[in-house]
Design a protein that fits this description.
By secondary structure, the protein is of the alpha/beta class. It contains six helices and eleven strands. It is globular and about 50 Å long.
């Protein structure tokens, strides 16, 4: 009899739990939730192309079950603004718009609520780039220096409660990469929120090209836009760490979740 009472109590507690308004049911997609566009550069340096190919495979795997529509392109030329606006996110893999028309379309796309997640050389700019809007979009920094060769580095989470970083350890070692420093430092810009930095414990970093100090943000967002920049993206070692993979997924999800037409993950 006692056994039955325990069983009954168990059943009651389970059904009470199931009726709790705070417990959300799984929301299986009945259709593709959103559209994403991968932009890559097949004629870049080999280490960047290696990353781009692995990244495309990473996003294809993220799309197992076809939760979203995933397209890829090597140029934004020829894509009308209206078509571009159908994408909830453009993932720039070591690539950036270069022609006047594609730059103008990209500006409009971002100014009107578009989403962007850029890796590594997608933010590279110097005097020859000649695109002031893009530089302010990225936070105002121009390429300053880098470590060489690529190597692992200790990262520190700057904002632990942000949707992109909240599940990450406070410090973790990033896979081998070439990291860029910028001038002026993006953190000095009031519109920029830095989410992840290289730890000063890494200094000196490099064997051939050595960096001895300086503020070194590597993941940030410009709060005026639906964007995130990640400095990773060099070589074929970038997808070998679960923490970094989680960072990439969380960043992608965060940008998409703020789509002005509504959060696709709630649909
Ligand atoms: Zn590189």
């Amino acid at each position: 009899m006692k056994k039955y009472l325990i069983l009954l109590a168990l059943v009651l507690s389970v059904s009470a739990f199931g009726g709790d308004k705070n417990v959300r049911k799984a929301n299986y997609a009945s259709q593709k939730r959103f559209k994403a566009l991968l932009l890559w550069e097949p004629h870049a340096e080999r280490d960047h192309v290696d990353f781009d190919k692995q990244a495309m495979e990473f996003f294809r795997r993220l799309n197992w079950g076809q939760g979203f529509q995933l397209d890829s392109t090597t140029t934004l030329d020829g894509i009308p603004l209206d078509s571009l606006k159908q994408y909830s996110i453009i993932v720039a893999l070591n690539a950036a718009p270069s022609s006047p028309q594609s730059r103008a379309n990209f500006e409009r796309y971002m100014e009107e609520g578009g989403g962007w997640m850029g890796f590594h050389a997608s933010a590279y700019n110097d005097r020859r780039t000649n695109w002031p809007w893009y530089v302010q979009f990225l936070g105002g920094g121009v390429f300053k220096c880098n470590n060489w060769p690529p190597q692992p580095a200790l990262a520190v989470v700057d904002v632990t409660k942000h949707p992109v970083t909240k599940a990450l350890p406070k410090e973790f070692v990033l896979p081998a990469s070439e990291f860029y420093q910028w001038t002026p430092e993006p953190r000095a810009n009031k519109d920029i929120q830095v989410l992840l930095s290289l730890s000063p414990k890494n200094y000196p970093i490099g064997i051939k090209d050595i960096v001895y100090g300086g503020d070194w943000p590597i993941v940030w967002t410009n709060k005026k836009y639906r964007m995130i920049y990640l400095n990773m993206g060099h070589g074929n070692q970038e997808f070998k760490d679960a923490d970094q993979d989680l960072l990439f997924v969380s960043a992608f999800r965060w940008i998409v979740s703020r789509d002005p037409s509504g959060n696709p993950f709630d649909k």
